[in-house]
Amino acid sequence: MDDFDFQVIVESLPFLLDGLVISFQLTFLALLAGLAWGTLLAVMRVWGPAPLRWFSAVYVNVFRSIPLILVIFWFYFLVPLLIGRPVGNFTSALIAFSLFEAAYYAEIMRAGLNSVSRGQVYAGQAIGLTPRQNFQYVILPQAFRNMIPVLLTQAIILFQDTSLVYVVALSDFMTSASTVAKLEGRLAEMYLFAALVYFVICFSGSMLVKYLQKKKVA
């Protein structure tokens, strides 16, 4: 510990914070996009006609059966080929994360939709709600409320997974810490600091999940 250099961490903080902002941005945007697409997939799986149920099931099973890092590679190299121009490493990573996470959010939301009792649906019908209104105002809010702890847990996993974007040279927090570690020759300091930051953020999120679970039970 006598050789541990805290100064290199202090001097690198602005650069590391820029990387942390990118990690948070990617997490937040991928969460929103993945949740929106995942909810639609869940609706297809629960109430859609046979072709849509089949499509949703295949989509979810395919994306849950392949490594995320492979999906990132796919979209980093394939999207520019499909549209004929480069899209940037952040955009390609966002597309990959959104489509990948949607498969997990689809299963979470499917469980949430199935957790709403049929009595709630019948009550909405009894007061004259249309099927769309019943879904929008009765079913979906309850499904989201039931699944909030699990959705937050998946968000924590998503934040951890953003460290994989080093493969497309995106300067997220982990990539920034690795860059400083190699340039300054201070691998122990930077990787320990990175681990501490991830621990604090993810542990805080886990405590929030536990609080919400206890509140729900109470």
TrEMBL record:
What is the annotated localization of this protein? Cell inner membrane; Cell membrane
Q: How the protein sits in the membrane?
A: Multi-pass membrane protein
Tell me yes or no: is Cell wall biogenesis/degradation among this UniProt entry's keywords. no
Q: Which Pfam families match?
A: BPD_transp_1
| InterPro entries xrefs | AA_ABC_transptr_permease_3TM (IPR010065), ArtM/GltK/GlnP/TcyL/YhdX-like (IPR043429), MetI-like (IPR000515), MetI-like_sf (IPR035906)
What keywords is this UniProt entry annotated with? Amino-acid transport, Cell membrane, Membrane, Transmembrane, Transmembrane helix, Transport
Give the transmembrane region(s).
Answer: 20-43, 55-78, 150-170, 190-212
Q: What is its main location?
A: membrane
Name this polypeptide is given: ABC transporter permease subunit
Domain ABC transmembrane type-1 residue range list: 20-209
Please give the superkingdom of this protein's source.
Bacteria
Q: Which CDD domains match?
A: TM_PBP2 (cd06261)
- Family the entry assigns: Belongs to the binding-protein-dependent transport system permease family. HisMQ subfamily.
